[in-house]
Structure formats: structure tokens, C-alpha cells
Design goal:
The chain has 72 residues and is of the alpha+beta class. The protein has one domain. It is 32% helix and 39% strand. A four-stranded antiparallel β-sheet has the order 1-2-3-4.
Length: 72
Amino acid sequence: MANIDLKFLCTFDSRDYIQTEMQHVEDDENLICIKIKDLDNSCAVMLDKSTAIKFAKTLRTEINKIKEVNNV
């Protein structure tokens, strides 16, 4: 398996990024971990599968809004 570290870099400062990964926690539960790095600070948001799906749909909706504004 490839050893890849995928980061989504900030538009304004390439030292800032968002990174995602699946994490296994107790009780055989898998969560999506979204790590956010901003300068010297970092935090993580843990989402279960259904919440991650809803977040992805919401993100796609916001992207479509940007597309609509740019097409006007």
C-alpha cells in the first residue's frame, strides 16, 4: 500500500491545511477525523459515518452555490 499524506492547503497560507483520515475507536466504531492546522494551532473534529455523509452533502451544496454565483 502506498504511503501518502494528503493535505488540502489553505488558499491564503500554504502552512495551513485540512487533512482527513479514518480512525478506529473503541467498540468497533470507525470515525472520520478531520484535522485542521492553522499556523501553530491544530484541532480535530470526529464525525460518525452518518454525520460525515451529511457534512459531505452540505459541502457539495455550498460548492454548487458558488458555481451558481459565478455563472450569473
